[in-house]
Design brief:
The chain is of the alpha+beta class. Helix content is 26%, strand content 32%. Among the domains are: 215-356, ATPase, nucleotide binding domain (Nucleotidyltransferase, domain 5), CATH 3.30.420.40; 398-483, Ubiquitin-like (UB roll); 495-596, no CATH class; 624-742, no CATH class. It has 15 helices and 41 strands. Strand 8 (141-153) and strand 9 (156-158) form a beta hairpin.
Length: 749
């Protein structure tokens, strides 16, 4: 952590802790050897301006400069570079969440340190999810510290999981959250000083590492860290830390009173406050340049009301965190708590003996070894040393990366990947993974068939310019580029490649066994094998041939005496699987067999063709009329344009084609004359009708998407040029058509 330099044999890794306070910045460097922490250097510097208020950084640049001064002083003392630092955040706008996390294994296993780390990380992530549910602000919060309250092994409480065999491990923990601006300001100030954050914790968590050893945590106690801007509070009970809290009132509020009463600047007022605890009288110069003298008692009297108010707020917070009851004892650390009368006033507000509220300094540092001359061993050093010790308790850090040219901050759980950064950046999953093209839906012999679209290209991911994937681990300062995945081509299917058409029809023709390829009709029209299937096509695979089609396929003449399965037959007799077909190629086929008219019957044949054509037209008209009647019954009437409920609704085409263009480009038998295109406006959009000589209103449904099943109790409204449409009304070039659902009580002009 600390950089290069001479290292003793028994010296562990150097830890640099920085207490960034409202009034001053205190830096401590040391190492842990066994259960003792050795302090090698410590430096402190006050802010030259009020760059911080109530624990919040207001001037990042100024605070960063002060951090830089402390860093350089420590580097000179140690003769080595300091690059990484542990810091703590004040509990301004502090939120806490208590949660339980559990991990189950498939079989019993010995619990290792990494298992405990994974459990605690799971607890932090779970606490964050729970916190997000109750976060009623637009402010983004980050977890800045957590404390395991209890561990469980196979549902039994245990002090330490490591080394035990278990199938289930669990923990109850308290996680603390602070707003993004508090955390971000600290990180930027540290980066301004050329340092990288190695660990972030909360000030009361850090202070309790030193002030209340574990052997005291069975007692129901409170720790109050009184700084300049905030008073941070933590509660212990039954061997664990049970709650954290904060009030935004501390030493600076007392200094402000001296400023107003003595007419001095903030720095002089701070000096008067400190000297009042050391001398009987203090001499100072006010802003008018006049020399003044004030007694220490006068200063205490001046501050007594504010001290009482501050201790009342602290006492109320302690009781609230402790289940609306007082605690057995209170330890006070931090410079703000050294003001005369503070501990007595707090004891009175809590209703406990004054001896049970005490300032803690040297007496709680039994496991701290100071390896420097003139070391400062008092309550001011409790939190800075605790910040160093927190590094060993939990690695809680944020890293900054660049994701698609935007700087972002991530909670570092030690296993961060590009996928985590993508989630934080709200980069959607569908843009990370290949997207399939639109599926093609159609029916084969009455059963729905789907041909899936092709898979698109996966997202292109670069990490620091090199190819990477979603599972690539990331670190602070990494540059991540993610180009969204693409959508593949839509589903495509040639008719001839259907599995049903891959099969063949076997028959015996004139004594020879042959195989005939199967054919298919699409929407009632025979199509070749190269036909590309379209959405909603209705395909019927033909499992038979006529005798005439067999002859055409074999490219041989069809003769007389046709027999199918030894039974007399005609050219249009159908031939199925394993049928036997024969004819005499030397015999002429009769007109009766061909079912075709002789020359003298030509007029009769033409008349019959016309009758068949008229019959087909009539059948088409009857089909359209039936559909019209169905629409009238279901939607309240198309002819009258019945007003109902409605809005424009887009959906899939639900009606059949009304005499429109067939799939092979031919028009239906209902058409007449030359084909022509017709352009009309439908719901404000220009559409083109093609493939017919003339068009009626219902033809519009062939070229628009309007779900006729989506009525939901509403009626359909149809208009042509503003008047209610007739179902078979002829359309003209440029006509304006409206089709929509109308909601109850709503009218559309």
């Amino acid at each position: 952590m600390a950089g290069l330099g001479e290292k003793r044999e028994d010296q562990g890794q150097l830890i640099f802790g920085l207490d960034i306070g409202t009034r001053s910045i205190v830096g401590t460097v040391g190492y842990l050897n066994g259960n003792k922490f050795h302090v090698l250097a410590q430096r402190a510097k006050e802010h030259e301006t009020r760059a911080m208020l109530d624990g919040q950084i207001h001037d990042i640049g100024k605070v960063g400069e002060t951090i830089g001064v402390v860093r350089r002083q420590l580097e000179d003392d140690l003769n080595r570079n300091l690059t990484d630092v542990c810091i703590a955040a004040a509990g301004r706008v502090l939120r806490t969440v208590t949660t339980r996390a559990e991990i189950r294994y498939e079989s019993e296993k010995e619990i290792a340190d990494e298992d405990i780390y994974a459990l605690e990380t799971l607890g932090v992530e779970q606490a964050y999810e729970e916190f997000q549910k109750i976060n009623d602000t637009d402010i983004k919060f980050y977890c800045v510290g957590y404390t395991p309250m209890r561990y469980y092994m196979n549902n039994y409480q245990i002090g330490n999981l490591e080394g035990h065999k278990a199938k289930t491990i669990a923990t109850e923990m308290i996680a603390t959250f602070l707003p993004d601006d508090v955390v971000d300001g600290l990180y930027k100030a540290v980066e301004h000083a050329g340092l990288r954050v190695a660990n972030l914790t909360l000030e009361p968590i850090a202070a309790i590492q030193v002030a209340i050893p574990e052997k005291f945590r069975m007692l129901n106690m409170a720790l109050v860290d009184v700084g300049a801007g905030t008073s941070d509070i933590s509660i212990t009970k039954e061997g664990t830390i049970t709650a954290y809290g904060m009030i935004p009132v501390a030493g600076d509020s007392l200094t402000d009173i001296i400023v107003q009463n003595c007419l001095v600047d903030f720095e002089m007022a701070e000096q008067i406050k400190r000297l009042a605890g050391e001398r009987e009288s203090i001499e100072y110069t006010d802003i008018m340049g006049l020399s003044q003298t004030i007694s220490a008692q006068a200063v205490m009297d001046m501050l007594s009301g504010a001290v009482k108010d501050m201790t009342k707020q602290v006492a109320d917070c302690i009781k609230e965190l402790n289940g609306d009851k007082t605690v057995s004892a209170v330890f006070v650390v931090g410079g703000g708590g050294t003001i005369a009368g503070y501990t007595e006033a707090l004891a009175e507000e809590l209703g406990i003996a004054k001896e049970r509220v005490a300032i803690r300094g040297k007496e709680v540092m039994q496991n701290i070894v100071f390896e420097l001359e003139d070391a400062r061993v008092d309550s001011l050093m409790v939190t800075p040393i605790g910040i160093c010790l927190s590094y060993y308790e939990q690695s809680n850090n944020f890293i900054f990366v660049e994701f698609n040219r935007e700087r972002m901050k991530l909670y570092d759980n030690g296993r961060l990947t590009i996928a985590d950064a993508a989630m934080q950046a709200q980069f959607t999953n569908e843009d990370l993974f290949p997207k399939r093209g639109k599926a093609l839906t159609y029916t084969v012999n009455g059963k729905t068939r789907i041909t899936r679209g092709r898979q698109g290209e996966a997202a292109v991911i670069l990490l620091n310019g090199d190819p990477a994937d979603l599972h690539s681990q990331i670190h602070s300062g990494d540059v991540i580029s993610v180009k969204a995945s693409t959508e593949g081509e839509p589903g495509r299917q040639e008719l001839g490649k259907l599995p049903e058409l891959a099969e063949q029809l076997n028959a015996v023709v004139n004594g020879t066994k042959i195989s005939l390829p199967k054919t298919a009709e699409v929407n009632g029209i025979r199509e070749n094998e190269y036909y590309e299937i379209r959405e909603n096509d209705d395909i019927k695979v033909q499992n038979c041939y006529t005798v005439k089609e067999v002859a055409l396929f074999l490219d041989v003449p069809l003769g007389g005496d046709i027999r199918v399965n030894d039974t007399p037959a005609k050219p249009d007799t159908k031939v199925y699987e394993n049928f036997t077909v024969s004819w005499n190629m030397n015999a002429e086929i009769s007109y009766a067999d061909l079912d075709e008219p002789e020359e003298e019957d030509y007029e009769r044949s033409e008349k019959r063709k016309k009758e068949q054509e008229e019959a087909r037209k009539q059948a088409e008209i009857e089909r359209l009329e039936k559909q019209k009647a169905d629409l009238l019954a279901q939607y309240g009437g198309l002819d009258g344009g019945t007003s109902g409920n409605g809005n424009d609704t887009a959906g899939g085409p639900e009606t059949e084609a009304h005499g429109g263009e067939a799939e092979n480009g031919e028009t239906s038998s209902a058409d007449a004359g030359d084909k022509r295109d017709l352009r009309v406006m439908v719901n404000g959009e220009l559409v083109t009708l093609t493939g017919k000589a003339a068009y009626v209103f219902v033809d519009v449904f062939d070229v628009i998407h309007f779900d006729l099943k989506d009525s939901r109790g509403r009626a359909i409204v149809t208009k042509v040029n503003g008047h209610n449409a007739e179902y078979m009304e002829e359309l003209k070039e440029g006509d304006s058509v409206e089709i929509y659902w109308e909601e109850s009580g709503a009218k559309r002009s």
